[in-house]
Specification:
With about 450 residues, this protein is mainly β. It contains no helices and 32 strands. The strands form nine sheets. It has a four-stranded antiparallel sheet with strand order 1-32-31-30, with no helix packed on it. The N and C termini lie far apart (about 45 Å). InterPro entries: Motility_Chemotaxis_Reg.
Amino acid sequence: MGVLGTVGCTGEEDPQEPAGTCQAAWQHDYQGGTSSADEALSVWAGSSGAVYVAGYERGNLGQTNIEPSGDSRAVVLRFLPNGTLDRTEVTDTGGTDVAEHIVGSETQELLTVVGRTTGALENATNRGQFDLFVTQLDGKGNKQRTVQQGDARPQHPMKVAVHPNGSVFVAGFDDMFVQGRVVLDSENGFVTRINREGNGFASGAAWKFASTVESNPDRLTGFVASPSADALYSSGFKFFADSEGPGGAYVRRIDPANGNLLWTSVIAPVATEADELLLTPDNHLFLAGSSQMPLEPGVPVVGEVDVFLALLNPSDGQVQWIRTVGTQGSELATALARAPNGDIYVAGSTLGSFPGFTHQGGKDLFVLRFSADGRLRGTWQRGTAGNDQATALWVDPCGRVFLAGYTEGALVPGSQNQGSRDMFLLKVDVPQPQSPPL
């Protein structure tokens, strides 16, 4: 195998514990940053044991309605199987650059990164405020192809998926559109397809599905494609019903051939966010989110906002079962991943305390471990006196659970916070719960 898939991790499944063993033990977690703001926004790991983190560094916060601002740099960090930082790939246009999501393909030996920029990448022209970009790297970090697309609105891509034929799907939303201190439109969710053309990408989109109703925020945050890319699913929240469809927390299925909307399933009409989607190899569609509503039959909301995990029918989006978990505080789900043995992990932030843990101040990190049928099998919580935000979660073929995000404190022992926010990468072991969450 190539650089992305050298021997280092096996996928032998164990029905009780995360699958596989690694040749190199994880020796230390990572916290790093600059004197400005730095955030890890995505994480991916393959069978080689190497771990890749995408995000940004050197950004400014609190100066504009869309963050970060300033001369931030989009970065991809590669960690060795033992946790040592190996190298950092940088995209720096002179504008604001952010890497939002990274996925890997061991068969194609490619890393695909989607991000946004206020500048212009090589041989490209910026079309407005933030343009989206897609860059593909080989396992050594060499850029293979890049495309930049946009219009007058500020694009905020959240997810990328790769078609077996090399095309890519990008999902996210247009941020609030402001010109001259005048708000012209709210967020508009979108999914777009960019085809391969020769050795590169086509300069324009093959199709784009997008919300166009003004002043009705449609914040799309979840997206997943089937392995063959014959099915696309997106999730998010729309404030109210309009001419395009129902409001509330939704899951949509989109035709990958032409971008047509096939169906919309409403999870809850109000006070609920459908945040993250996951499609398993055996075609089970999972949704993680947060709600102030009692979504699980017979189970009241524990705190102000609880997290939920739901299994949906991939054919029509109907809920098969739903599980809610919470503390006396509030929880927000921000990441979702599957282990080789089928366990499902949900990560996010909490203002409360899960059993066996004590809230440290501000937002704490949490990871919940569920069986494939929705039974809670483990809880984990960690934090500092400041805000700690989980943004990404991945379980590698060895069953190692990796959590990425940013911290305002000293999250990793032996580290000191370098600026307003530091990025982090943690290997997380999720213990069995001591009792039902309070």
